[in-house]
Amino acid sequence: MKKLKAFTVIELIMSLLISSVVIAIAFYAFLFLNKQFIRYNSRSGEINEYIIFKTAVENDLKNSEYLLDSTGLLVFKGTNNSDIIYQVSGDYIVRQNEFSIDTFKIANTGFIASYDPKSNNIINGLLFKPVLLGQDLEIKFDKPFSAEQLMKAERYNSE
Questions:
Q1: What are phi and psi of 49, to 5 degrees?
Q2: Which residues is 141 bridged to in the sheet?
Q3: 4, part of any domain
């Protein structure tokens, strides 16, 4: 009788055991990397939203003639009577102009406006308090005025 060359039961069980350990390690590595990617993606999205918002506010400040505080709304008065209005809520900020409405999902504790000492409600600076990645921040935006811009703002205020 001729002897067949084959694997024994012990060899098969050992190969199954080794392959199951390798598969288990690969599975948990995949879960770990997937969780890290989701966390990175979430943090990246939050930071990108903040950067877009900050750029929009800086551009609006630069292009506006003056700022007004109108019952909880920030109004950026531009040339040609084009207004940009910011409405602040606890979880989001809405920016509205004549062409579009933008919503920024940024947790915040609001804006604190600093006023020009010579006028009633003309704003010359904003202190924005966002919550970014679980940390409270304070970002200051300043609006430099020319004498002409202040005179226009005073005329508008007196009307």
A1: -60, -40
A2: 126
A3: no
Residues in CB range of 122: below 8 A, 6 or more apart: 66, 67, 68, 115, 116, 150, 153, 154, 157
pLDDT tens, position by position, 84-121: 999 988 888 999 988 899 999 998 888 888 877 776 66
List beta partners, residue 123. Answer: 67, 115
142 assigned to some structural domain: yes
Q: Residue 105 belongs to what domain range?
A: 9-158
In a domain? residue 3: no
- Is 153 within a domain? yes
Q: Are 97 and 84 within 8 A, CB to CB?
A: yes
Mean pLDDT of 43-51: 93
Evaluate if residue 67 carries a pLDDT over 90: no
Tell me the whole-structure pTM to 2 decimals. Answer: 0.74
Count of structural domains within the chain: 1
